[in-house]
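Hi support team,

I've been running sequence recovery on a batch of backbones for a student project. Most finish fine, but this one hangs at about 90% for roughly twenty minutes before it completes. I'm not sure whether the input is malformed or the queue is just slow. I've pasted the structure tokens below so you can try to reproduce it. Let me know if you need the job ID as well.

Thanks,
M.K.
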């Protein structure tokens, strides 16, 4: 598509940081209807920066749905698979929105931001579905549901230097206490309400890369100023802007499932290794409870890690097979995500395979464009950061 002057036009929604990405030389891709940066320099360089120093990600395409009311907590207990009413103020929790058949509508992070206020962060492609489901499921409760996605930008600083970069960035403050002390003491999956240059920002110690890191929620109009300030403060510590390509290899190494790949409506949480996220101990009903109590079919495929040799990666959709001497290979699974791991240095993948073949150490093969390449079932994650 081109404009009247012949310049290429980009289709899809634009992040409030789009101009900053373009000025930095980013390559863009369509992601859930958004034009988002896929890389700035190289996938490898950005990946290694996050593992060794820090990367700066624009996640403004994510959805944010806010629930406000005296029954917001119990409403979410019914709508989602976890017990959200037990969250402390400023605490976050990973949860699942299940269908009545027990499949995964979306995986979410829920923040309790007040006595009667919660923020649900949904995947970009599921924003409207999640908002509509939450409105429908919480209608019997004293709560209001607002889709505030268009009013919130999201920036993530991920990597071992992320804390020191935030501490070096001027402009942050909190009402009660010292911002540096509050950030240093912030635990994983907790948040603090703060300000950046006089504007509200929610700072959460969360992320999707397997590294320490922070996610910052703020008004779209303020996102560019914060983005530039973080890049300037982090330059000496190795901070670089990072795109979706590196985010995908980072989360794959960390064994983190992605909706549309490892998770979907046809996926039961237990098959995806997320059975613990479904709280069957809570004393209230929730959508999908009955199906979750039944569990997946005993022969339903389960999610495993696969590790290979050489340099050829197993990509999503490639068959997992058990070779036969007569050439009639038995297809026993399918790859959902795969890449040549920048950190581990060998091909890694996640795949759903028959449960009889899910034990770590099991030798399988992946059909990589007609070649049967050996892979070994490996416990997830492939990479874990050193915790000090």
């Amino acid at each position: 598509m081109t404009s009247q002057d012949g310049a290429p036009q980009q289709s899809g929604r634009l992040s409030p940081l789009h101009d900053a990405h373009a000025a930095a030389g980013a390559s863009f891709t369509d992601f859930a209807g958004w034009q988002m940066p896929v890389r700035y320099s190289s996938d490898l360089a950005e990946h290694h920066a996050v593992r060794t120093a820090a990367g700066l990600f624009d996640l403004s395409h994510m959805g944010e749905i806010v629930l406000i009311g005296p029954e917001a907590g119990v409403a979410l207990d019914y709508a989602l698979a976890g017990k959200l009413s037990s969250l402390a103020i400023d605490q976050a929790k990973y949860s699942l929105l299940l269908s009545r058949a027990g499949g995964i509508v979306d995986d979410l992070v829920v923040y309790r931001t007040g006595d009667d206020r919660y923020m649900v962060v949904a995947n970009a492609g599921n924003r409207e579905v999640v908002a509509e489901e939450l409105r429908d499921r919480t209608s019997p409760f004293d709560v209001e549901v607002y889709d505030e996605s268009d009013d919130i930008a999201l920036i993530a600083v991920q990597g071992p230097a992320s804390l020191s970069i935030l501490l070096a960035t001027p402009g942050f403050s909190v009402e009660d206490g010292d911002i540096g002390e509050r950030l240093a003491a912030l635990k994983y999956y907790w948040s603090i309400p703060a300000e950046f240059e006089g504007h509200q920002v929610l700072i959460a110690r969360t992320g999707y890369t397997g590294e320490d890191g922070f996610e910052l929620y703020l008004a779209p109009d303020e996102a560019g100023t914060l983005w530039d300030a973080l890049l300037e403060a982090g330059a000496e510590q190795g901070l670089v802007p990072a795109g979706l390509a590196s985010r995908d290899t980072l989360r794959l190494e960390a064994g983190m499932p992605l909706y549309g790949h490892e998770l979907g409506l046809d996926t039961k949480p237990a098959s995806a290794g997320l059975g613990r996220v479904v709280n069957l101990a809570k004393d209230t009903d929730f959508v999908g409870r009955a199906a979750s109590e039944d569990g997946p079919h005993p022969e339903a495929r389960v999610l495993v890690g696969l590790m290979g040799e050489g340099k050829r990666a197993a990509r999503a959709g490639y068959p997992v097979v058990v070779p036969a001497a007569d050439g009639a290979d038995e297809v026993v699974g399918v790859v959902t995500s795969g890449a040549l791991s920048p950190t581990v240095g060998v091909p890694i993948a996640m795949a759903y395979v028959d449960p009889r073949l899910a034990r770590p150490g099991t030798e399988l093969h992946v059909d990589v464009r007609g070649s049967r390449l050996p892979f070994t079932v490996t416990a997830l994650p492939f990479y874990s950061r050193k915790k000090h």
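--
Follow-up from support: It reproduced on our side and the slowdown came from queue contention, not your input. The longest strand covers residues 104-114. No action needed from you.
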